[in-house]
Amino acid sequence: MEFTGAPDHPTRQRVVRSILDNGPSTAAALAERLQLTPAAVRRHLDQLLDDGAVEAREPRSLAARGRGRPAKVFALTETGRDGFDQQYDDLAAQALRFVAETGGDTAVREFATRRVAFIEERFDGVMAEHPELSPAEVLATVFTDEGYAASVRELPVVGEQLCQQHCPVSHVAHEFPQLCEAETEAISRVLGRHVQRLATIAHGDGVCTTCIPGTTTTSTPRSTTPTSTATTKEQVTS
């Protein structure tokens, strides 16, 4: 998104960046941090509230406030965060276009393979650290640690399904599907079997899903969270 309001646009960006870097902040804290007047900060916050980039919240702790009504804190919304994500996405897309123009498809594929090297680098270590997890759950843990918010669902008869609720490169992967292809190939290599990508966020699906056949066991499916990364295994009932 673009933060509106020229000629105040650069200052408004500073306000949003300060909240992004320092977390939910009061207007007074922002004014002090950015060396702006409280009135100026409030004006920017009002516009950002109208844009849906920030939201006002009650402070979590009132211990240091003493008497009087506590000042609200302002936090970024998903829309506000997307403004920064889009900037990085645009830069990444430009870089990959340059790679494609100068090195061709082979260079793009080499880059995509290197980007997902973390899958093979971390898989054995996480498996050794958490022997109670299935291979698919190990993958979900690895992906979640990289920001993919992954989980595992058991599919009757078929096997398991790796679900990624978030994709850090979805905007770029829409133009460069090699990123998704390299990811799928790395999953297949660490599991030692063919897997099938069923859906991707990059192509408009709500979740990236990968079917992993033949990994189910006869044991009762676990419904608890296996690791601190909130990887879950869910029984599909439909």
List keywords for this structure.
238 residues; alpha+beta; Arc Repressor Mutant, subunit A; five-stranded mixed beta sheet
Summarize the structure in words:
The chain is α+β, with helices and mostly antiparallel strands and 238 residues long. It folds into 2 domains: 9-76, Winged helix-like DNA-binding domain superfamily/Winged helix DNA-binding domain (Arc Repressor Mutant, subunit A); 86-235, Alpha-Beta Complex (H-NOX domain). It is 50% helix and 14% strand. The chain is built from 8 helices and 7 strands. The protein has helices spanning 9-22, 27-34, 38-51, 78-115, 117-129, 135-145, 170-175, 178-191; strands at residues 54-57, 73-76, 150-155, 159-164, 196-199, 208-213, 233-235. The strands form 2 sheets. Strands 5-6-4-3-7 form a 5-stranded mixed beta sheet, with helices on one face. Strand 3 (150-155) and strand 4 form a beta hairpin. Helix 5 (117-129) packs parallel to helix 8 (178-191). It is elongated. The relative contact order is 0.10.
| Named CATH topology of the largest domain | H-NOX domain
Determine the strand fraction and express it as a percent band.
Answer: 5-15%
Main β-sheet description: 5 strands, mixed
Q: Output the number of helix runs.
A: 8
Radius of gyration based on Cα positions: 22 Å
Q: Determine the mean pLDDT.
A: 82
Question: How many beta-strand elements?
Answer: 7
Task: Give the helix/strand class.
Answer: alpha+beta
CATH architecture of the largest domain: Alpha-Beta Complex
When the domains are counted, the total is 2
Biggest sheet, strands in spatial order? 5-6-4-3-7
Shape: elongated
